[in-house]
Structures are given as C-alpha cells and as structure tokens.
Amino acid sequence: MNPDKSKNIDHYNVDGYPTFYLIDMRGNIIKGFKGYYKPLGNELNNLIKENL
Question: Does the pTM of the predicted model rise above 0.70?
Fold first, then answer.
C-alpha cells in the first residue's frame, strides 16, 4: 500500500469494514457509516440529494 494512501485510514478512523463516509464538495464529512444495513442505500441517497 502506498504510504500516503494509508494515512486516509488514520484520518477517517476506519476500524472496520465496510466503512462509508459521505463527503461534500468542500471536503467536509457529512456523515460516516460503519457496517452495512438494509436502509443504508436509501439513507445515502437522501443525504446526497440534500447536500447537492
């Protein structure tokens, strides 16, 4: 792994997989998600629409 790419894991506090972060166009984290659950797709779609 490229050493620069491994820094992302430290900065985003990834401690399990899958981990999702919704990030706006300015680079701000809108919301983070750990794991997977059925309503995740709808939740992500709604947050994306709200933050476009």
Answer: no
